[in-house]
Specification:
Number of helices of chain A: 22
Keywords (chain A): Membrane, Transmembrane, Transmembrane helix
Organism (chain A): Acetivibrio saccincola
Largest interface: A-B, 25 and 33 residues
Helix content of chain A: over 70%
Strand content of chain A: under 5%
Distance between the termini of chain B: 21 Å
Organism (chain B): Acetivibrio saccincola
Protein name (chain B): Multidrug ABC transporter ATP-binding protein
Largest sheet of chain A: none
Protein name (chain A): Permease
Distance between the termini of chain A: 54 Å
Oligomer: heterodimer
Structural class of chain A: mainly alpha
Largest sheet of chain B: 6 strands, mixed
Strand content of chain B: 25-35%
């Protein structure tokens, strides 16, 4: 970007330094109480105590600093909207992200100003790279320093994460403002939203009980509040990041005609239904054991238990069918498209069935990987939110390996199985019915010493201590056999739709 | 194939129905005049053609592509819609440079050439806050044509121009049309419309009535 664009989009003005005055005054008033505290508890404060007393102070952040940034952002967004710029950018999406880039600069400016102000007020205090002894005192009124010292080994790490959390939250709200402005083009709406946000922030801070931590604003502005409420360092980040990702998704799709989006939604209703069923199943399993003293990984195993020789419950069996065979059902729907009458025209262009197959099959592998990772991350996050402990089990590698690698191999087996039957019978639906029939081998008494490659990615095997690498080998052998059959079909059998 | 096509378009704006089931197509290389009383929907029509707003029903197709499907705004459009907000404390040249930098397709020389064509070369060092209404209008025209845009949508391009400047801009638009550009313009001055336009439409009864 040229210097002119920087000029046009320049929102950083030295006059904003006036905004530092209340911060300096507030930090000074915070500082006044420290000598009494030191004397009373016979401790010595250092530089970091003064920094965090202000930088984690929810009153300063929630009632002054954060609303101020949002107000300035709103003014900037409104001031810089121009149709003649929009037509050159080519989309609202580009406009939103161009604005966000500029808003990020103002965030950095204000955070530096905030830091500068509290550094100014901590002048003449002893400097160290370690925490002072003030954070050891566990009494009311000293929660910020006590919790931060408890969770973070070094004060510098806490400062970096505090800045990161605040920045992430601010950017998330600014993105929301940009999206709303692009959609409605009314600054009054943005100002109203800022006002409501201010009100909501105050109410959530003062009125909401601890159990509503997920929707309490200060948890995402002040690191101390977030960490203390969730009893986890990463949770506040994960939640804000999730919201940010949703907003990025919305911004990416803002240029679609909403009527097209409605059609898109209707078209993808089965996928949404599948996602909802998975979510409900995960929530059901996790909620069932919330107060059972389990770790998040125990919760994960219980959720995807499936069935083994020793373990069988109807709920686990049904959930396995929904999650894994549900996924294969969508693959089968895609297959219908690939094997439709159009396949003649696509194959002739690839000039080989193998090449044609490789043009769409990797996409299916990618989908399987994304599904497994989403299930893993989603379940772990829900378990965390539900208060499961963070205890890391000795067999963590085994758990993740079994779920991801064996899960991938098992789904790959199902998918190739469906392709083979579809190709051989020219009836995609028959293949899925055949696969469903094979799930009989997941029922008690039908497992045939785990010889059948059905349900072998059940997490119950980890619980039983069954060697997960042996499962990988079994599945790999079956997949190799499937590939041989598939290649034979591709090269020998007539292709008739 | 039509350059721009509106298919069964209906649009209400701020609770007022402006177009109902409007179908019209525009060909390449012509000058189209759109007339109608204040608030009749001329600007809304232009905004729909640019993809800034979507119709409530129907579709807008530019160069064979429906806006809002794969693409939001069409390519190569030069526009004057609403009053552009300029950087008051910068010169006209700097304002154009700022806009040109978004796509980075043209040089400083090209901008100077355009400023000369619209009659602003003598003001190259003058800040926009000191521009008259007519000078700002010339600057708006300059930004609409400087990147050699194929389609020009000019809402009231002659507003605030003196007699000589009107003549100059008319000549400019004619020469752009001769180069194959398609131009849409609105004006309250019938003379502008009569002299320049190959086809004229009036916004009436929620539709476009062809007058010429």
């Amino acid at each position: 970007m040229s210097s002119m664009i920087k000029v046009k989009n320049r929102i950083i003005s030295w006059k904003y330094l006036i905004a530092a005055i209340p911060i300096v005054l507030y930090a000074l008033s915070n500082r006044q109480s420290m000598p009494f505290f030191e004397e009373l508890h016979n401790v010595t404060a250092n530089f970091w105590d003064y920094i965090f007393m202000s930088f984690s102070d929810v009153y300063l952040l929630l009632f002054y600093f954060f609303p101020l940034i949002l107000f300035i952002s709103t003014v900037y967004i409104n001031r810089t909207f121009e149709y003649i710029e929009l037509i050159r950018l080519g989309s609202y999406k580009k406009w939103i992200f161009t604005r966000l880039e500029q808003l990020f600069k103002i965030d950095i400016f204000f955070i530096l100003m905030f830091l500068g102000s509290i550094l100014l007020t901590s002048f003449n205090t002893s400097f160290s790279m370690e925490w002072s002894s003030v954070g050891i005192i566990d009494i009311s009124g000293n929660e910020i320093l006590y919790y931060l010292r408890h969770y973070f080994p070094k004060p510098f790490v806490a400062l970096v994460l505090q800045i990161g959390l605040f920045l992430l939250t601010t950017i998330t709200f600014q993105l929301m403002l940009c999206i709303l402005y692009a959609r409605f083009k009314k600054s009054s709406l943005l100002h109203l939203l800022n006002g409501l946000m201010y009100l909501y922030g105050s109410i959530s801070f003062k009125v909401f009980p601890a159990s509503m931590k997920l929707i309490v604003m200060p948890n995402y502005l002040s690191l101390f509040h977030g960490v203390a409420s969730f009893d986890s360092i990463i949770m506040p980040f994960v939640i804000v990041l999730s919201v940010l990702l949703i907003l990025i998704f919305i911004a990416n799709n803002i240029d679609r005609d909403y009527r097209n989006s409605k059609n898109y939604l209707m078209k993808n209703l089965p996928v949404l239904g599948y996602g909802l069923l998975c979510l409900m199943g995960i929530l059901f399993h996790i909620s069932k054991h919330t107060n059972g003293g389990l770790s998040i990984w125990d919760g994960f195993i219980v959720t995807f238990m499936g069935t083994t020789n020793e373990i069988f419950t109807l709920i686990s069996f049904a959930f396995y069918i929904v999650v894994f065979l549900g996924a294969v059902y969508f693959v089968q729907l895609r297959l219908q498209r690939y094997l439709s009458e159009m396949s003649y025209y696509t194959m002739i262009r690839y000039r080989s069935i193998n090449k044609w197959f490789l043009s769409w099959f990797p996409g299916i592998l990618k989908t399987i990987t994304i599904l497994l990772l989403t299930l893993l991350i989603g379940t772990i996050s829900i378990a965390m939110l539900k208060g499961y402990s963070n205890t890391v089990p000795d067999n963590l590698f085994e758990i993740i390996y079994h779920f991801i690698v064996n899960g991938f191999l098992q789904l790959l087996f199902y998918v190739i199985f469906v392709i083979i039957i579809s190709f051989a019978t020219k009836d995609v639906f028959k293949s899925f019915i055949t696969l469903l029939t094979l799930t009989v081998f997941m029922l008690p008494g039908f497992r045939l010493k785990n010889l059948m490659p059905i349900g072998l990615n059940s997490m119950g095997y980890v619980l039983e201590g069954y060697p997960v690498f042996l499962i990988s080998i079994k599945l790999a052998v079956y997949i190799a056999a499937e590939i041989i059959v598939l290649l034979y079909l591709f090269n020998k059998k007539d292709y008739i739709v | 194939m039509s350059l721009i096509e509106l298919r069964n378009v209906s649009k209400s704006f701020k609770g007022l129905s402006l177009f109902e089931n409007l179908s019209v197509s525009f060909e390449k290389g012509k000058i189209y005049g759109i007339v109608g009383h204040n608030g009749s929907g001329k600007s809304v029509l232009f905004k729909m053609m640019c993809g800034f707003i979507f119709p409530d029903q129907g579709s807008v197709i530019v160069n064979g592509e429906e806006l809002g499907k794969n693409k939001r705004f069409p390519e190569n459009f030069g526009i004057i819609i609403d009053k552009p907000g300029y950087l008051g404390d910068k010169t006209g040249f700097e304002n154009l440079r700022y806009l040109a930098d978004i796509q980075n397709k043209i040089s400083d020389e090209k901008i100077k050439e355009i400023l000369e064509r619209v009659g602003l070369s003598h003001t190259i060092m003058q800040k926009v806050k000191n521009y008259s209404l007519g000078m700002k209008q010339k600057l708006a025209i300059a930004q609409a044509i400087m990147e050699d845009q194929d389609i020009l949508l000019l809402d009231e391009p002659f507003n605030g121009l003196d007699v000589d400047s009107v003549e100059n801009i008319r000549d400019l638009l004619k020469s752009l049309n001769n180069q194959g550009k398609t131009i849409f313009l609105t004006s309250h001055n019938n003379e502008d419309i009569d002299i320049l336009c190959d086809h004229v439409f009036r916004v009436r009864n929620y539709s476009l009535e062809q007058l010429k």
